[in-house]
UniProtKB/TrEMBL annotation:
InterPro entries: OMA_tautomer-like (IPR047687), PrpF-like (IPR007400). Belongs to the PrpF family. The keyword RNA-binding does not apply. Keywords: Isomerase. It comes from Streptomyces dysideae. It comes from the Bacteria. The keyword Ion transport does not apply. This is 4-oxalomesaconate tautomerase. One of its GO terms (molecular function) is isomerase activity. Coiled coil: none annotated.
Length: 360
């Protein structure tokens, strides 16, 4: 099933419909998506990381979850498939897909699906309308970056077991640049745009064409990966790097996020959850730039094509450091088509590179 989830698009599969061997599975998915090819002209991929994604869904053995969701990022121009990160946008389609495929029975009005994100072991609950026991994708919820409106999918994340501040510090310094390393579902490095000699209001295209900026970001990401306990991240897409600057449209902050080289045309859900939490950390890089509301948990994150609203609140962990207490977001999803995909012949398919790392 091809679905739009949030501001991404991907192919959703039942795990039982794919090879059990990860190498064989990844080789098949490369052929399905049309990689490696910068246009992905011979497959389902849309020639951009945001449209070259895969969800693998199965019943969960975890008593806290109904289904397991494995996210796979299929590289566009390289024969690589990575399981090193979650995707909160594709997550928006997991509940509806689970109901469509009969993994979870639909309620008469609304259905909640408990999801275990295999990549990280984190959990989320997605709630969406199912009038008459059928998924309804129509509605009046609007999210920037997606034309029109659709039914709301409310995704709530419980407080994670991991540390919100993976380095144990509110602020670190990498190559002379102050950063705050946060993980509220997505390992993310918060950086003031001004510290890298950019405004943070540039278009994604202009930022991507800044060679000097790309070099600085690469060095910061590699160093941050080690500080955050992720090891060598040279061949992975985490941690994300998010440049912060004061808001211009009534939100809390303006962002530009790198994944890891391409500049996101919006912002990922889990990345935004990490940003929202980071803005509330006293002494952090984001706190001095953000304009947070005087009351309530609502945080509006501005991005290149609009904004993303989240509910985010913090508490204090047993180590005395800030910890995430609650995170929720409203997204939308839509079924685009349901059918059979015919992958490229194995005779012309390249051998995939090994999937970097395993589920963490």
């Amino acid at each position: 099933m091809l679905m739009r989830g949030g501001t991404s698009k991907g192919a959703y599969f039942l795990a039982g419909d794919l090879p059990a061997d990860p190498a064989a599975r990844d080789a098949l998915l490369l052929r399905v998506m049309g990689s490696p090819d910068e246009r992905q002209i011979d497959g389902l991929g849309g020639a951009h990381p945001l449209t070259s994604k895969v969800a693998v869904v199965s019943p969960s053995a975890d008593p806290r979850a109904d289904v397991d969701y494995l996210f796979l990022q299929v590289a566009v121009d390289k024969p690589e498939v990575s399981d090193r990160q979650n995707c909160g946008n594709i997550l928006a389609g997991i509940g509806p897909f689970a109901v469509e495929r009969g993994l979870v029975p639909a309620g008469e009005e609304r259905t909640s699906v408990r999801i275990r994100m295999v990549n990280s072991g984190d959990h989320a609950t997605a709630t969406f309308p199912t009038p008459g026991g059928r998924v309804d994708y129509t509605g009046d919820a609007e999210i920037p970056g997606v034309p029109g409106t659709a039914a709301p999918v409310v995704i709530e994340f419980p407080a994670g077991a991991g540390r919100l501040l993976p380095t144990g510090n509110v602020r670190d310094e990498i190559d002379g640049v102050p950063v705050t390393c946060v993980d509220n579902g997505m390992p993310t490095v918060l950086i003031a745009a001004s510290s890298l000699k950019v405004t943070g209001y540039e278009s994604p295209k202009d930022l991507e064409e800044d060679v000097a900026l790309a070099d600085r970001l690469r060095e910061i990401r590699l160093a941050a990966g080690r500080l955050m306990g992720l090891g060598d991240v040279a061949d992975t897409t985490v941690p994300k790097l998010t440049l912060l600057t004061p808001p211009r449209a009534g939100g809390a902050v303006t962002t530009r996020t790198f994944i890891p080289v391409r500049c996101h045309t919006s912002i990922g859900v889990l990345g935004a959850a990490s940003v929202a939490a980071g803005l509330r950390i006293e002494g952090g890089v984001g706190a001095e730039l953000a304009q947070l509301p005087a009351e309530g948990d609502r945080v509006r994150i501005e991005h290149p094509t609009g904004f993303l609203d989240l509910e985010s609140s913090l508490g204090t962990g047993s180590d005395g450091l800030p910890s995430a207490r609650r995170t929720a977001v409203v997204r939308t999803a839509r079924k685009i088509f349901d059918g059979t995909v015919f992958p490229r012949s194995t005779e012309t398919a390249p051998i995939p590179a090994a999937t970097p790392g395993g589920p963490r």
